[in-house]
Design goal:
With 115 residues, the chain is an all-alpha fold. The chain is built from 7 helices and no strands. The termini are far apart.
Length: 115
């Protein structure tokens, strides 16, 4: 059995590999660690840590991380609500081709208007 098969079967092992790579500034590993931390897969769920990993990956240009960090900012998940920053992150994702980045600002503003 190779490491790939072991990681695929064990979320805790996946998190360990993502963490090792993320600590060496690998952007997609940062995003993967954010996903696992957000979902509580292989690691305890921690919204603040997930938002931080999304932010770090977003700063390195990972489009999905830019969108997810925008969602965190828009909804106040793991961070304080900041709609201006959320829209800026959505815009960054959209300018790189993410269709979700084009739709999220309107959804974020709609949610805030209802609150």
């Amino acid at each position: 059995r190779g490491a790939r098969g072991e990681v695929g079967e064990d979320p805790t092992a996946a998190v360990a590999w993502f963490r090792r790579a993320a600590e060496q500034e690998h952007p997609k590993a940062m995003y993967g660690l954010g996903l696992h931390t957000s979902n509580g897969s292989g690691v305890e769920r921690d919204a603040e840590a997930a938002a931080e990993w999304y932010r770090r990956a977003a700063e390195h240009g990972v489009i999905s991380a830019q969108n997810n960090y925008g969602l965190c900012l828009a909804d106040g998940v793991g961070v304080e609500v900041d709609l201006v920053a959320a829209i800026q992150w959505y815009f960054r994702a959209a300018t790189q081709g993410a269709s979700s980045g084009q739709l999220q600002p309107r959804a974020a503003l709609s949610r805030r208007q209802r609150d």
